[in-house]
Amino acid sequence: MDEINADFFTGNRRRLRELFTGTAPILLSANGLLQRIADTNFPFNQDPNFWYLTGVDVPDALLFMYKDKECLIMPDTTDYGDIFNGEVKAESLMAISGIESVMENKEGWKLIEGTLKRIRHLATLAPPASYIPTYNMYANPARASLIRKLRDKSPDLDILDLSEHFKTMRFVKQPSEIAAIKKSVDITCRAINSARRHHYEYEYEAEADISRSFRRDGAAGHAYDPIVASGINACVLHYQENSSKIEEGALILADVGASYNHYGADITRTWSQNKATPRQQAVISAVNDAVEFSLEPLKPGVIYADVISDLRSFVGEKLRELGLIKTISEEEVFRYYPHSPHFLGLATHDVGDYHAPLVPGVVLTVEPGIYIKEEGIGVRIEEDVLITDNGYELLSAKLPRIF
334, 331, 332: which is closest to 323 by C-alpha? Predict the structure, then answer.
């Protein structure tokens, strides 16, 4: 199996230098820890772009690249932090990243400040808005904090954004990335297939079995917060309580993905612990037809945005057949199908260009759904797909769609 090692990260840094044709230094920040309550933090998730270049999972670290120099700059630490979080060894970071220079924070910023005196431009990643209203959540402040510090030290500095370069680099997966995604998909398929054979009284029982299966099979855990939703709960797209009693006759929707070596799966199946009603069967069948419809055109050269648009129209036809709408319009379809497929990789909703032709090595999802709140029915079927030279490989093929 292809491995993700120092050669992978070294190659990614080289590719970034080739894409970024300017001579400006590159300075990137890791994510920072976020407080959960009092002196505890939420589980740490590294900035995917920082990890893509370094393989380093240290919060608040910096990567500095200028001319032929590369160095990792460590955050300030305290004895308290080392005792509770563990001490970071420079030798291990060098081995992981392939970067030969690891500096303490004070020494690293001295290097940066000296460089700032001689340059007019610097390249980094633009920070997101501090608050993202679409998702009702706050962004990690690490990038914004870095830019504020740079502005304080060099007010006239022209800061360039590398976001498009990372979108280009991460759009097509390398063999080692594909191997990691396939591993995460296989682990996820086994977990769902096992869970659907059991009879559960509560949603959390299924979640617990899936989590146990992930860890037992070598995953680090979940690539995102798991969704195990029964009945009307499945009509909440990112339902996360996973605590309700599973009522007799209710469908169960499991949207889960294992994380393996930082790469995740994203698979959804919907089933009944008893015999599904004719209405439930009709909705499941309609969603399965939509999966088949959206898989058929996938191949190099196809525009993913067109596939997504055509899928929405097809689901509209199914909604009309089910008697849910009379006229196929964007607004009417959105009421029962309010989400879209996406790219997959280091992030569950990974970066990529929806309007660029698909090429071999792109990994994406196909995930139609129909959600009927008034009937307490929510159905989603989600597959993970790799674009190949001649078409596509259905990575999640080992898991049946209809049980």
Answer: 332
Please determine whether the domains at 6-169 and 172-394 fall in the same fold group of CATH: no
Domain covering 6-169 in this structure, CATH number: 3.40.350.10
**pTM to 2 decimals?**
0.96
Q: Tell me the percentage of the chain whose pLDDT exceeds 70.
A: 98
* Among the listed residues 273, 282, 239, the one whose alpha carbon sits nearest the alpha carbon of residue 377: 282
How far is the C-alpha of 8 from the C-alpha of 55, rounded, in Å?
A: 9
Select from 155, 140, 61, 49 the least CA-distant residue to 108.
61
Q: Is the dihedral of CA 395, 399, 400, 401 positive or negative?
A: negative
Give CA torsion, residues 346, 348, 350, 354, to 10 deg: 150
- Measured CA to CA, the distance from residue 222 to residue 256 in angstroms comes to 7
Domain ranges (residues) in the chain: 6-169, 172-394
Average pLDDT over all residues of the chain: 96
| Average pLDDT over every residue of 99-116 | 96
pLDDT the model gives residue 1: 45
Judged against a pLDDT cut of 70, whether residue 376 lies above it is answered with: yes
Class of domain 172-394: alpha beta
Give the tokens for residue 253.
């929707």
Q: How far apart are CA 265 and CA 359, in angstroms?
A: 20
Q: Are 267 and 257 in contact (CB under 8 A)?
A: yes
Distance CA 218, CA 221 (A): 9
Please say if the pLDDT value at position 184 is more than 60: yes
